[in-house]
Every structure is written in structure tokens, then in C-alpha cells.
Amino acid sequence: MMAKKRVSIKDIAKKLGISITTVSFIINGKAREQRISEELIKKVQDYIDEIGYKPNHVAQSLRLGKSKVIVFMAEDISNQFFASIARLIEEKAYQNGYKIIYCSTDNDHEKAKELISTFKMRNVDGFIITPTPNLEKDIKNLLDEGFPVVLFDRWIPDVSCSHVIVQNEESAYQGTMHLIEKGCRNLCFVSVMSTQSQMIDRARGFRKAAQDSNVDYQECLLKFHNLAEIEPYEKLLEFFEQRPGIDGVFFATNYLAFEGLQAMGVLQRQVPEKLKVVSFDDHYFFNLYKPKITAIEQPLEMIAEKLMETMLEHLGELDKVYKPVKVVLANRLNERESTL
Amino acid sequence: MMAKKRVSIKDIAKKLGISITTVSFIINGKAREQRISEELIKKVQDYIDEIGYKPNHVAQSLRLGKSKVIVFMAEDISNQFFASIARLIEEKAYQNGYKIIYCSTDNDHEKAKELISTFKMRNVDGFIITPTPNLEKDIKNLLDEGFPVVLFDRWIPDVSCSHVIVQNEESAYQGTMHLIEKGCRNLCFVSVMSTQSQMIDRARGFRKAAQDSNVDYQECLLKFHNLAEIEPYEKLLEFFEQRPGIDGVFFATNYLAFEGLQAMGVLQRQVPEKLKVVSFDDHYFFNLYKPKITAIEQPLEMIAEKLMETMLEHLGELDKVYKPVKVVLANRLNERESTL
DNA sequence: TTGAAAGCGTTACCAT
DNA sequence: ATGGTAACGCTTTCAA
Description:
- Chains A, B: Keywords: DNA-binding, Transcription, Transcription regulation.
- Two copies of one chain form a homodimer.
- By secondary structure, chain A is an alpha/beta fold.
- Chain A folds into three domains: about 10-55, 434 Repressor (Amino-terminal Domain), CATH 1.10.260; about 65-165 and about 300-330, Response regulator (Rossmann fold); about 170-300 and about 335-340, Rossmann fold (3-Layer(aba) Sandwich).
- The first copy, chain A, contains twelve helices and twelve strands.
- Chain A has helices spanning about 10-15, 20-25, 40-50, 55-65, 80-95, 110-120, 135-145, 170-180, 195-210, 230-240, 255-265, 300-315, and strands at about 70-75, 100-105, 125-130, 150, 160-165, 185-190, 215-220, 250, 275-280, 295, 325-330, 330-335.
């Protein structure tokens, strides 16, 4: 009924009448190296299989100072983008013997700071982080202490840290150009007020395209989403109601697009006839929506792959000072009905 | 530059010229109990604050046999439902000093089995699991070994294990009745082939409602979603094309509804005029879709709350044999345009 | 009121 | 070829 005490390496040694050391060597594949006799190896291995012995990772972690755990600090793990990345990362982590602990920062510096300090005392081996504002110093500290850190989604200009991001400016430029090519002459960029690098880059790409093409444009910046806040939907409704001339909208993120599209519906602004739409961050539902929404798709699998590849590389170079790896991936513009 | 060695309790003791024990007592709030002098307490605490000492959780875990880690085994962490639960659980776990490791089983028994065994050797304190088929024995083992286990989304009839689920049968019954009340006389239930309790219960509720009302019905069961598989969309297209008489569809899950709705669009079956639709598992996009889709909403916050409440309760009773807690929560039918 | 020391399960150095 | 043992950082019993 009650937990049968787990067998330890000591029990095995006692049972087989040999020393702990020998068992340890055999378990860790150092038997040959130590010239332990084949028959003893076999005997120990058979016994281990028989009783189903599994080494205690906590003890290993204490001894080795490594835990085989990576922490994944997303802005919000329930967000589809982060959840998808989490899933893909999980796969690769497990394949390499690593587990993943997750947490959500809510883009809150204090919370992120606290989480980092919590995980340090758990001997986590590495950090994958979507940095919040003002996290520069904490990231720098982690790096100085020798922790592998890989940032993603956004990065921090002032700190030389590995990161995996996408071509935000380039793709925003391309998406905006697409609107212009389709005939839009009065553009609007909808985004959140934010100092996050990816948002700034997207805005820059938009502006550049509009300016390069000599097209009128304006920007609608919403407060960062916060449950206490008024719905973006309300704001967008008001904004567009007062600006009937707008004929092309670039949404900086899919969440805003969904809210905005609802507003367009209510305002009877037919898409794409009266107003064309492009959104950053493609989504399953952009394909279902009527009309289907043109969107910029981030290469999720590639992001996850590069994240883990970089992390594993750094993990392999523990105690050495590793060179930061900076990956910038291309996106894809999926043209659909909203820009016909 | 390189990792300044982390201070341990030993360093503190040495620095202050007292024993490790004393420091430990003070850190763990047992100073009063041990009648340690106020001034010494203050001295130690001040020093700890000054150097920012944080105890090593791995060492604590090894010593105490508890890790303050809960593992969250979902079917697929990138699925919106599981991701949302993950987020809510995270919140409560962290509030109580627990961290969460996640993993996805893909509903694969072998994978789940392996994951369980992996986590046992990490001293995880508890398991929150969406059980895969054939996992009865493994759950039972966990229970026998004294691990707190809470199942959710579905449960296992043969094992007396705590679980948090929703009223699947009742809500499916209610949703089906809703279709019938709105005039449907030729119903169809779309689901996946599955032995999962929640799917079976939903089917049962559907059937019962149809039979109680003496209404024709049929069922369309798709192979369990698998990337190698043909798209549910194709199957549904074919299925409904051959059955023009169907005037009411109950989708067992939102994923199927989205695929089915696309098929309806192509087949020109106007919703709700020609065919009414209800889906299990409400979704943000059911509100955005045109027409808005009537759906049964699971109480996510409540599920998460009950999950953690139950888990924490069990964690408090470690080493005692705890009574399984069985929670069944009510859902809400959100009536929308698809059943007008 | 404080300290010494055992012990949690491992690994790895040093003997033999 | 194999074994003894210190060490990882902490908690807690027992002794002083």
C-alpha cells in the first residue's frame, strides 16, 4: 500500500556484494573505461533491469550541479503563439533528456525578476525568455553567472545575448507594400503601446513602406492589453468610425486583428472592397474567417528548432564562455481574400 | 565574469562564526522554537538579506524527499483548452510555492508511461494528468506508491482516483435538446473514435436526447486526429454532401466544429437556416464567426481552481492515505446565431 | 541556547 | 579491476 522505498545504488551494491563505485561506473557506462569484467557488468545490468532501478535525478543534480531542466519564460503560456512554441520546444527538449518548466511573466518586470531568482536556486540549466521591459540587468546577471540564456520573440539591444527572432521590420514592410500594391492610399497601423523590440520593428517597417511609397498613414496605438482595461474592440470601433477614409489596415498582431475585424463588421466596412487588411502573426482562424485574412506567418517550427539548437549548443559549452548566437528568421506573407 | 560560487548555509555560518544548525533554524523560522537569542537571529537575518542568500532547492529536495514540483501531463499543451488550464494552474501553483513541469502525451499510452517513470525519479510531488487509453495500471501504481494524482478532462472508471471533470453527458443532452427545440428533426453527432470518457459521455447525452424526443439521428465518427491522417475537413465534406437531410449538428469538440463549418460553407448549407449547429467546448472564435456559433462552455477557471485545490489538499496529506476527491462541474450553454 | 554529525543518493578521486 | 570515501547543501536528532 504505502510507497515501497525506492531502491538506491547502495541497495544494489549490497545485494550484489560489490561496491557502490562499481555499480555507479557500470550504470554510467564507464565500465569498459574502468576495465570492469564483462561478467560483472552483465550481472549488474541484469539485476538493474530486473528490479527496474532508476537513478535519482535530484541526487544527481545536487552532485553534478546540473538539473537537466530548462525554464521557458513566456509572456503568457496560454497565448496560442507561445503555447505552440512550448509544444515544439518540449519535443526537442525531451529528446535530449531535458525537461521544461514554464512560467508566464505577463510582461511584468518584477514578476520576471522574481521568477529568475526562483529558478536559479533550483539549479535549472538554462533560460529561454521573452524579455519584459527593463529586464536588461537581470539578463546580464544571468549571463555573467554563466547561465545559458536564449531570448526570443523580442530581444534587448543593450545586452549581448543569444536570441531567436523574426524579420519584423522586413515583413511589416512587405505586408504594407502589399496593401499599397493592392491600391490602398490611406493606411493605418494598429498596435499596442509597447517598447518591445518586435513591435517597434513592425511599426518601423510599416512607416518606411508608407513613406517610400508616399502614401498617407496614421497609427492607432492601444494600451497594452490588461484585463482591467477597456476592450480594444471599443477603442477600435471609435477610432475607425471617426476615420472613414482609411482603406488599408495593418494589424501588428492577430489578437488586435480579431478585435478590429469585429469593429469593421459593425461599421459595415466591407473587407476587402472598402478596406483591405493584413495582420502580423498568422492564425488558424484567418483561414476560416470570411473573408480569409492575409497574414504574415512566423516560422514556428523553425523558431522552436533554433531556440533549442542554440540552447543545447550553449549547454554543451558550460563553464566555457560561449559566443552569443543571433538568429533572425524570415516570415511568409500568406495572401488571402482580405487583400484581393 | 564567471559564476561567483553561490553562497551556502555553510559560508554564512563560517562568516558569522556560528554553526550551520543555528543558521538553518533561523532560516526556517524555527529560531523561537529553539530559543535562539533575538540578537543572533537579527544578525543572521541581516546578513542573509545583505548577501541575498537563497537556499538551494535541490539540496532541500534531496533531504526532504519533496521537490515542490507538480507535473502537468496534458494531451497536447498547444491545444487552446489545455494551454488555458495550464496558465490558470500555473498561477495557483506559484502562489503556493510550487512549480509546474509540463508535457504532452499525444494520447499515447507508451509515451505517458515513460513520462510518468521519468518524473518519479525527479521526486515530483504530484501528478495532474489527462489519462491516455490503457493508463489504468500506471495510475494505480502511482497511487499505491503514495503519489498525489488528480485526473482531469476525462477519468478512469476502474480506478479510484481524484478527478475534476465536467458534466459531459448532461450538457450534451442539453445542447441536443436545444437543437430539437429549435426545430431540428434530423440530427447528427460529429465526434472522434475514442474511448475517452468525456467523448463517450457526450455521445451518450446526444443519443439520449434524440431518443427521448423521438428524433432521427446519426453519428459521424472520425479517426482520432493524427497528422498523417486525411483531414477531418475532407471526411466531413463527403459525409454531409451525401446526407442533405441533416438539419442539426452537434460537434463533440470545437476543433471538429471549425472543420465542419468550413465544409458547410463549401456545401452552401446556410447556418442556421438550413442547418443548425451546436459545439462542445466554447471558443473565442465562436463569437467572431459569422454566424456566431452556439456552444457549451467549460468553466476553465473553476476546473483549474478545483484541480489545484484538490492537489494541494492531497499534498498536505502526504504519507497519509487520502480519500479521492471527485469533482464534476457544470457547463454553460451559450446560445448564439447558429441555432437561431 | 547552540553545535556536531548523520543522512538524503550520487559521482569521482584516490587507493589498492 | 574494484572499493572506500569525500563532497554536493540541506534538515534534524541528539548531545552539550
